[in-house]
UniProtKB/TrEMBL annotation:
PROSITE patterns: ATP_GRASP, BC, CPSASE_1, CPSASE_2. This is biotin carboxylase. SUPFAM superfamilies: Glutathione synthetase ATP-binding domain-like, PreATP-grasp domain, Rudiment single hybrid motif. Residues 1-442 form the Biotin carboxylation domain. Residues 120-318 form the ATP-grasp domain. The keyword ATP-binding applies. PANTHER family: CARBOXYLASE:PYRUVATE/ACETYL-COA/PROPIONYL-COA CARBOXYLASE, METHYLCROTONOYL-COA CARBOXYLASE SUBUNIT ALPHA, MITOCHONDRIAL-RELATED. Its EC number is 6.3.4.14.
Length: 442
């Protein structure tokens, strides 16, 4: 087992990784920005190093500063969490070049899956179904129009180097495509340093379903189970559940087999997620992307499998042979508690004057904040993940309702009122919903 671990992240995921590492007897080191010095994850680690000011480019995405922190503290390994440098192939290579263990997939797999066009083409070659779309970047608006005419409107305009729901827009006709192509390309150049654009078929009614995979140290790739991620705003997830209410046993078998094939195609190691779009009317699904890291929503998989995915990550990175449990029990739901307006979902940072977490049977809270801390505008608005598990979906929903009612936050704005509304929504309760559910509620 790794003896010392540096967590190159912040907030709830840094706290989450530290918790498991310390349980395994691993010495923990965290890095933090000046703005985050007072957050719980900093106090809970064995050692903490400030790596720069609030600006992520100068702190959490500052690879040189993080590597320097690892060397100065004697860290043996680096866990990147999610976001920031977690899917940066060059950083993964630099970690290993400095004699450290990278707790994640190999840099080649990260690079292969980091470009959406390259990923689509690789998956198609491996026999993984992909939605109709371009095989090469659309370099000009005329090329995008030609592709859209061939594919058929409406189309999704995507930043090839994007992720996390960023750099995406829908175009229903040529006029809209001209506008959105320019916007997406400009956004991609600013955010990712790569203006490559992918044109893909847009499905007006679709579900977002993903499969958790583990690439084991012995070379095998296993699929655990699927998660439903269709409750979204601006293509970013708000609530996830496992299992998906839209997936039958037969469809689940096909999804999991496809996810294993996707992982094997790139020699995948460690934890990852194969994301798919599911047509609920036909049962067809298409590869969307592969996230080469631990997902925000990993706890719902943990709860139905009785597994600690961070522990599995550390054991795989240590070269240990693991045999993850594939059988599942119950139903789990995760709600992303964000510092944002519950109606328009606009950020609402502030000083936390009240923070009372719910408790009870089947309730888990992974939080990054506490009373007396401050949610700043510099980072993602995620404050905590409220996770519940029940014997079945109905019990999980009931526990989620009670937990939302018992979660008290004052200071920053929060979206708990939205979740209270969602958990009473007939469409959601039926299980027959899609990625448009939030817009229909507004």
């Amino acid at each position: 087992m790794i003896e010392s671990l540096l967590v190159a992240n912040r907030g709830e995921i840094a706290r989450r990784v530290v918790r498991t590492a310390r349980r395994l007897g691993v010495r923990t080191i965290v890095v933090h920005s000046e703005a985050d010095a007072g957050l719980p994850f900093v106090a809970e680690a064995d050692e903490a190093v400030c790596v720069g000011p609030a600006n992520p480019a100068q702190s959490y995405r500052n690879a040189d500063a993080i590597l320097a922190a690892a060397k100065s503290t004697g860290a043996q390994a680096i866990h990147p969490g999610y976001g920031f440098l977690s899917e940066n192939a060059e950083f993964a290579r630099a970690v290993e070049a400095n004699g450290l263990i990278w707790v994640g997939p190999g840099a080649d797999a990260i690079a292969a899956m980091g470009d959406k066009i390259n990923a689509r083409n690789l998956m198609a070659e491996a026999g993984v179904p992909v939605a109709p779309g371009t095989h090469d970047p659309a370099d000009t608006v005329d090329a995008a129009i030609e592709a859209a005419t061939r594919i058929g409107y409406p189309v999704m305009v995507k930043a090839a180097a994007g992720g996390g729901g960023m750099g995406m827009a829908v175009a229903g006709d040529e006029a809209a495509l001209r506008t959105e192509f320019t916007k997406v390309r400009g956004f991609a150049e600013r955010m990712f340093g790569d203006g490559s654009v992918l044109i893909e078929r847009y499905f007006p009614r679709v579900r977002h379903v993903e499969v958790q995979i583990l690439g084991l140290a012995d070379g095998r790739v296993v699929a655990l189970s699927e998660r439903e991620c269709s409750v979204q705003r601006r293509n970013q997830k708000l609530l996830e559940e496992a299992h998906s209410p839209a997936v039958s046993p037969e469809l689940r078998e096909r999804l999991l087999a496809t996810a294993v094939r996707a992982g094997e195609a790139v020699g995948y190691r460690n934890a990852g997620t194969v994301e798919c779009l599911l047509d609920p009317t036909t049962g067809e699904f298409f590869f969307l992307e592969m996230n080469t890291r631990l997902q925000v929503e990993h706890p719902i998989t943990e709860l139905i499998h009785g597994i600690d995915l961070v522990e599995e990550q550390l054991r795989i990175a240590s070269g240990e042979t693991v045999d993850p449990p594939l059988r599942t029990t119950g139903h789990a739901i995760e709600l992303r508690v964000n510092a944002e307006d519950p109606k328009r979902f606009l950020p609402g940072p502030g000083n936390v004057t009240t923070w009372v977490e719910p408790s009870g049977e089947g309730v888990r809270v992974d939080s990054g904040y506490a009373e007396g801390t401050t949610v700043t505008p510099h980072y993602d608005p995620l404050m905590a993940k409220l996770i519940v598990v029940g014997a079945d979906r109905a019990e999980a929903v009931e526990r989620a309702r009670a937990a939302v009612a018992g979660f008290r936050i004052a200071g920053p704005k929060n979206n708990l009122p939205f979740f209270a509304e969602l958990l009473e929504n007939d469409e959601f309760l039926s299980g027959d919903y899609d990625t448009g559910i939030v817009s229909r509620m507004r």
